[in-house]
User: What shape does this take?
Amino acid sequence: MDIYGIKNCDTVKKALKWLDSSDRTYTFHDFKKEGVSRQQLEAWEQQVGWESLLNRRGTTWRKLPDAVRDNIDRDSALVVMVENPSVIKRPVVEHQGQVNVGFNADEWTRTFGA
Assistant: This one.
């Protein structure tokens, strides 16, 4: 299981705590430090769609120019996410060939088991 996110994100902290309490083995990738490639984003986007990956509620999104936010589409969203990994919804989980975005304890219990 690979977890992608930002270490100081509250949602990521909750997700990692859930994983630790469930004795799950995982590898954490901090895209603030390690970045994320367009190729990686395209692979995720094929499974969950670019709109699921784009966090429109955070400060990074709000700081983008209006022209970028108002004209966002798949290609421009991927560029924005590569250049500003903080705008990616977190965490992104790769597990057994599947991609999941965000954290919800009940959903994770159903998806990954307790």
